[in-house]
């Protein structure tokens, strides 16, 4: 690329970032806001602004395809392509399997060989990524998917646009229901052991896909089969553009005993609203609160701690005057707590929804779950945490940071949808006593990264970690003690990630190669096609903060 062309691209990128920030004043304000967290966040903020303000994102996607897409041509794959009941006659004795394709979708020319190879290597179900074909015949709006995530699939059918099934498996499964592919796959799941995701675009939608507004009839039956007779599905009223139209109930205890552990050191301006919001939004009768006082010195803090214990009989204060160690302080809470579920909560968080604690406990009490974390929002309503990605860039990075939670124009998964993740942040992390008994408590040799290590240990033990996107909590993020103050954590955690999970199965690798996962860098946003003024204005305006329930 010539020097002049590079300079022109830099100028275009700066213009996009300025546009997204609402002008030069807005750009400076956002960069100055990111600077205290380190220059990596400043870079991430620039990437995020560029992503939201770019007017050529569809072109960038096609350029990315030219550099990265797997090349291939139609070859003899011995797979029957089935898109309607009439096509089932194509499945003859010579076929090794079938590919079910939704109406108004077209296969990529490399799809059949890629899926046939995966089936030959032992896969039972195979799916890939997808994109769209616009009115001018151009590829745009990719959907880069995670590896199989059950908790996501309960809310979104992201498999059936194009899925291959081996012939042997097909013979033992119920027939494909062309009117209810989501329900078909739910009926298949208990009898399928190996689902393989190919991180390449295998199909193209000829019109924008429309999400389901009602749960498939088979969902309730699936939940009862997996989680007991009390599991069920309930419809919910969702505000705005939220994709969550139903809620899966897992049949766990309606009022489990929950121990909330809150480490703190002074900062009464944060701690008091945190505790008040906790008691205002949940039932105090089954909540035990343990405040771990890590050497508070201000008289106002000590006075309030004495008063709040008289006000709430279920609240206790435990003292620890050592150096701040997130893992050790929370382990003290585990040793003293009496709950069936433990919630580890930062003192700079604020509960904003009734029943949020019961919902996190419901996830945590599932026998297959390790750790659970909710959607965390900044004070202005933008996303602070929606699950962590490990093994790319930094050791454990948040995604969606700084975007509006109801921003549906993602190339990945909406931050409102529950899904499985490699890890969640300890700012608000729930787990059950049974999980703690099974895999142990937090590693005190990791003073600040014990949350990620715990999640990786749970995953290694065969449990899933859940990002509960249907639960929201407000978080000021490291208002008391910053995560970067313990450099030795990063070194050890990096080695641990490389040894246990060097590639995060719940984040598409195509996204990490575009702009990095890094803090504040929603790489997936680079791939949006809609660049109209109305779209950009809606997506770059400050999100409306959620209401605080009384």
Main attributes of the structure:
550 residues; 7-stranded mixed sheet; 5-stranded mixed sheet; 34% helix; disordered C terminus
Give structural notes.
With 550 residues, this protein is of the alpha/beta class. It is built from 18 helices and 21 strands. The protein has helices spanning 3-21, 24-34, 39-53, 57-68, 111-120, 150-153, 167-172, 181-188, 218-227, 268-281, 299-311, 326-336, 356-364, 433-439, 450-460, 487-500, 509-515, 533-540, and strands at 79-82, 97-101, 105-107, 125-133, 139-143, 162-166, 195-205, 232-235, 246-249, 258-264, 287-293, 315-319, 341-345, 349-351, 369-377, 383-385, 388-390, 396-398, 419-421, 428-432, 464-475. The strands form 5 sheets. Strands 1, 2, 3, 4, 5, 6 and 7 form a 7-stranded mixed β-sheet that branches. Strands 12-11-10-13-20 form a 5-stranded mixed β-sheet, with helices on both faces. Helix 1 crosses helix 3 and helix 15 (450-460) runs parallel beside helix 16 (487-500). The chain is globular, with a radius of gyration of 24 Å. The N and C termini lie far apart (59 Å). 47% of the residues are buried.
């Amino acid at each position: 690329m010539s020097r002049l062309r590079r300079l022109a691209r830099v100028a275009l990128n700066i213009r996009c970032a300025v546009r997204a920030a609402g002008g030069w004043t807005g750009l400076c304000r956002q960069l100055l806001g990111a600077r205290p967290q380190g220059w990596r966040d400043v870079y991430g903020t620039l990437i995020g602004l560029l992503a939201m303000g770019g007017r050529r994102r569809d072109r960038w996607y096609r350029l990315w395809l030219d550099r990265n897409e797997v090349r291939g041509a139609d070859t003899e794959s011995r797979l029957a392509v089935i898109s309607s009941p009439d096509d089932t006659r194509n499945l003859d004795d010579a076929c090794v399997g079938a590919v079910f394709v939704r109406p108004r979708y077209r296969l990529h020319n490399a799809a059949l060989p890629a899926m046939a190879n995966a089936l030959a290597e032992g896969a039972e179900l195979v799916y890939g990524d997808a994109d769209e074909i616009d009115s001018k015949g151009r590829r745009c709006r990719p959907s880069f998917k995670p590896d199989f995530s059950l908790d996501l699939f309960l809310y979104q059918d992201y498999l059936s646009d194009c899925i291959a099934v081996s012939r042997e498996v097909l013979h033992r499964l119920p027939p494909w229901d062309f009117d209810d592919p989501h329900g078909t796959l739910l009926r298949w799941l208990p009898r399928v052991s190996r689902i393989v995701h190919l991180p390449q675009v295998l199909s193209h939608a000829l019109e924008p896909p429309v999400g389901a507004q009602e749960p498939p009839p088979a969902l309730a039956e699936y939940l009862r089969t997996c989680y007991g007779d009390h599991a069920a599905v309930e419809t919910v009223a969702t505000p705005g553009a939220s994709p969550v139209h139903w809620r899966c109930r897992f049949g766990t205890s309606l009022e489990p005993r929950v121990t909330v552990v809150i480490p703190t050191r002074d900062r009464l301006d944060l701690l008091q609203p945190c505790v008040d919001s906790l008691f205002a939004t949940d039932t105090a009768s089954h909540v035990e609160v343990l405040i771990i006082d890590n050497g508070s010195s201000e008289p106002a803090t000590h006075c309030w701690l004495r008063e709040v214990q008289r006000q709430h009989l279920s609240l206790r204060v435990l003292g620890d005057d050592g150096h701040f160690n997130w893992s050790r302080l929370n382990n003290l809470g585990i040793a003293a707590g009496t709950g069936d579920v433990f919630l580890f909560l930062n003192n700079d968080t604020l509960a904003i929804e009734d029943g949020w604690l019961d919902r996190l406990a419901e996830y945590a009490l599932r026998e297959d779950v390790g750790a659970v974390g909710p959607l965390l929002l900044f004070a202005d309503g933008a996303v602070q945490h929606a699950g962590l990605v490990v093994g790319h860039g930094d050791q454990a990075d948040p995604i969606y940071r700084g975007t509006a939670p109801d921003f549906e124009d993602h190339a990945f998964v909406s931050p409102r949808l529950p899904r499985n993740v490699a890890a969640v942040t300890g700012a608000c992390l729930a787990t059950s006593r049974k999980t703690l008994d099974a895999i142990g408590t937090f590693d005190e040799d990791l003073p600040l990264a014990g949350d990620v290590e715990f999640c990786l240990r749970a995953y290694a033990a065969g449990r899933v970690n859940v990002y509960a996107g249907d639960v929201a909590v407000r978080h000021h993020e490291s208002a008391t003690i910053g995560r970067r103050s313990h450099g030795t954590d990063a070194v050890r955690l990096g080695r641990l990630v490389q040894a246990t999970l060097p590639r995060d199965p719940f984040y598409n690798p195509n996204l990490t190669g575009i702009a990095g996962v890094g803090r504040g860098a929603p790489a997936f946003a680079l791939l949006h096609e809609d660049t109209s003024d109305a779209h950009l204005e809606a997506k770059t305006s400050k999100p409306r903060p959620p209401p605080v329930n009384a």
